[in-house]
Amino acid sequence: NLKMAAFPLGKLLYLGMRQISKPIAYQLKNTAKRSPFFRKYICSPPAQALHKLEMFVKFRLMGAKGHVEYAALSEEKAVEQGAEMLGELFIYATAAGYIVYEYWKGVKKEHKKESSTNEHITELQDKIMQLDNEVALLTTRIRSLEQIKKSDKTPKK
Q1: DSSP class of residue 38?
Q2: Do 86 and 42 touch, CB atoms closer than 8 A?
Q3: Is 78 helix (H, G, I), strand (E, B) or coil?
Q4: In this predicted model, what pLDDT tens digit does every residue of 16-54 receive, in sequence order?
Q5: Left (φ > 0), alpha (ψ -120 to 50) or beta: where does 155 sit?
Q6: Phi, psi at 64, each rounded to 5°
Q7: Long-range contacts, 88-93 (Cβ 8 Å, 24+)
Q8: What gap in Å lies between CA 32 and CA 77, rounded to an integer?
Q9: Low-confidence residues of the chain, pLDDT below 50?
Q10: Which of 46, 65, 82, 83 sits CB 3.0–4.6 Å from 32 for a disulfide?
Q11: pTM over 0.85
């Protein structure tokens, strides 16, 4: 019963984290749009770089050769796109963090299971050695009893 409940519980936890991360991402985007530091150093450069890459690829696909001039994004558009990218990055980072957490939890569980199996094997090997020793002791006793029996059967003079 506990194992069956763990799977849906993990899914619920993931959905909860995702639902919580969306408002946080929204707040992060709004803060980024208002803060001059975020606007200038965090939001705008990645958006401009993405725009530059997008324009380069588009012009190459259209057959343009050499250096092509194109307009950069307006500051407002760059900040909007950068803030959007930042919000998405936060959501994906939250999901990736959860995936890594689940992976390590599984690794830890597997290691614990393997350790338990190894302990059980060691216990069984110890038990086999103990039984081997008992068999050897019993074999020695049987031989000595056989020797006594033989000596009792020999005629006495």
Answers
A1: I
A2: yes
A3: helix
A4: 877 888 888 888 888 888 889 988 898 899 999 999 999
A5: beta
A6: -70, 140
A7: 88/25, 90/21, 90/24, 90/25, 90/28, 91/18, 91/21, 91/22, 91/25
A8: 13
A9: 1-2
A10: 83
A11: no
Quote the tokens at residue 117: 């199996």
Which single residue is written with the structure tokens 């991360």? 21
For 102, residues 6+ apart whose C-beta sits below 8 A from its C-beta are 10
Round to whole Å and give the CA distance between 52 and 47. Answer: 9
- Burial class of 50 by CB neighbour count within 10 A (0 to 12, 13 to 18, 19+): middle
- In eight-state DSSP terms, residue 72 is P
Residue indicated by tokens 């959905």: 15
The rounded distance, in Å, linking the Cα atoms of 107 and 119 is 18
The SS3 of residue 65 is: coil
- Closest C-alpha to 28, from 75, 93, 99, 74: 93
